[in-house]
Write a structure and sequence with these properties.
- It is a single chain.
- Helix content is 35%, strand content 15%.
- With 197 residues, the protein is of the alpha+beta class.
- The protein has a single domain (24-180), classed as NADH Oxidase (3-Layer(aba) Sandwich).
- Strands 1-2-4-3 form a four-stranded antiparallel beta sheet, sandwiched between helices.
- Helix 2 (37-48) runs antiparallel to helix 5 (110-127) and helix 3 packs antiparallel against helix 6 (140-146).
- The protein is globular, with a radius of gyration of 18 Å.
């Protein structure tokens, strides 16, 4: 078994929080690995304390454990290459934006707020020594139907969570991508304008 290094610290331009610099998104999960309820509770609690527009908290989650009927439904909605590795994750978390409240009033910032909550969830997962990989490649309508979600609840991502697994078990080219150096654009490429101090 060849595990990818569990610490793949980013070469940041300036120091940042360790939990952020060390976080990465593997595809190799341990097919026998488990995630304790307490770790899921902490991840959901971190997501719960995310800021949101008007404190609307428009995030909802479906937590599906490997081997359960719900996990099978969620995994079945995944697109192409995601299906080849995500079945090894201990948990699949569906992140859902509440795009309208119970009275039908739109929540225009719900996707942004949900993204923040998933970032909090992901940071907590990594802090607890687990890994997470967010996926947008899935059949939204198939997942909506499988989970009986009303139109006001919009599935946005599926997050694979679990202990790190064997990179050699991945098919190529995923195996190569798993070991590739982490890269990001320079901050100067991302900032359109910045006032000097």
């Amino acid at each position: 078994m060849t595990l990818v290094d569990t610490v793949r610290t980013a070469a940041t331009a300036v120091p940042i929080l360790e939990v952020l610099a060390e976080r990465w998104s593997p595809r190799a999960f341990d097919p026998r690995g488990e995630v304790e309820d307490a770790a899921i509770d902490r991840a959901l609690e971190a997501a719960r304390w995310t800021p949101s527009a008007n404190n609307s908290q428009p995030w909802r989650f479906v937590v599906a454990r490997r081997g359960s009927p719900t996990f099978h439904l969620v995994h079945g909605s995944l697109a192409g290459v995601n299906r080849t590795w995500a079945d090894k994750a201990a948990v699949l978390v569906v992140s859902i934006a509440e795009v309208a409240d119970a009275d039908g009033r739109p929540r225009p910032w719900s996707h942004y707020d949900l993204g923040q909550s998933v970032a909090y969830l992901t940071a907590q997962v990594h802090h607890d020594g687990l890994h997470a990989h967010q996926m947008a490649g899935f059949d939204t309508e198939a997942l909506r139907a499988a989970l009986s979600l009303p139109p006001r609840l919009d599935p946005v991502t599926v997050v694979a969570v679990g202990p790190l697994g064997d990179a050699d078990a991945l098919p190529e080219p995923l195996r190569e991508r798993e070991r590739a150096p982490r890269q990001r654009r320079a901050v100067t490429d991302l900032v359109l304008h910045r006032d000097p101090a």
